[in-house]
Specification:
The complex is a heterodimer of chains A (about 110) and B (about 110). Chain A contains no helices and eleven strands. Chain A is mainly beta and about 110 residues long. In chain A, the strands form two sheets. In chain A, strands 2, 4, 5, 6, 9, 10 and 11 form a seven-stranded mixed β-sheet that branches. Chain A has a four-stranded antiparallel β-sheet with strand order 1-3-8-7, with no helix packed on it. Chain B is mostly beta strands and about 110 residues long. The chains are: A mainly beta (about 110), B mainly beta (about 110).
């Protein structure tokens, strides 16, 4: 089944404790992206990657890091999480940057205390 | 700077009625306008999309109307059903440019009452 998977789905952590949210797609997509969703703010892009070893900042990159060492994986790293990073996070992928459908993962709900 | 403005924030419609969600954009370079549907607990999924060379696109009960001169586009859901209850996001992108990332509106929560 073609899909984007994220882990964990739910995470409660404390301020300053480094964490990684994994994202993996099995569709051989070149383009991958991370979004955060907050009430009243919609979906905002954090980082994106056009291909392996190519990443760039989205609209809200502060406090986040990403890496793209393999085509299928695009982990999101929070090196020192803060309460304002409490949010619902989505990973997405598409075959290329173009008029192609972006496939979203199921989401990761993160709470930083 | 919000590049895609979506309204209303929430919408309640009776079963069988027409749901209308509106979006306006600022960047005239945008050339791709999709709508995504999100059910509770799920990620968004592409519903329908349009390019600016057409003024309307219809897929089943869902229609996108596009007004290039006004820089506005809208989603119409005909014969709305309780199963259509979800959050809807409009988006825009410039795929002719170098970046081409999707810019999303803030979303509209639709409730269809039986």
């Amino acid at each position: 089944e073609a899909q984007v998977t994220q882990n964990p789905r739910y995470l409660i952590t404390v301020t300053g404790k480094k964490l990684t949210v994994t994202c993996s797609q099995n569709m051989n997509h070149e383009y991958m992206s991370w979004y955060r969703q907050d009430p009243g703010l919609g979906l905002r892009q954090i980082y994106y990657s056009m291909n392996v070893e190519v990443t760039d900042k989205g609209d809200v990159p502060e406090g986040y890091k990403v890496s793209r060492k393999e085509k299928r994986n695009f982990p999101l790293i929070l090196e020192s999480p803060s309460p304002n990073q409490t949010s619902l996070y989505f990973c997405a992928s598409s075959s290329r940057v173009g008029r192609n459908e972006q496939f979203f993962g199921p989401g990761t709900r993160l709470t930083v205390l | 700077q919000q590049q895609v403005k979506q309204s209303p924030q929430s919408l309640i419609v009776q079963k069988g009625g027409i749901s209308i969600i509106n979006c306006a954009y600022e960047n005239t370079a945008f050339d791709y306008f999709p709508w995504y549907q999100q059910f509770p607990g799920k990620g968004p999924a592409l519903l329908i999309a349009i390019r600016p060379d057409v003024s309307e696109k219809k897929e089943g009960r869902f229609t996108i109307s596009f007004n290039k001169s006004a820089k506005q586009f809208s989603l119409h859901i005909m014969d709305s059903q309780p199963g259509d209850s979800a959050t809807y996001f409009c988006a825009a992108a410039n795929y002719g440019g170098s970046q081409g990332n999707l810019i999303f509106g803030k979303g509209t929560k639709l409730s269809v009452k039986p």
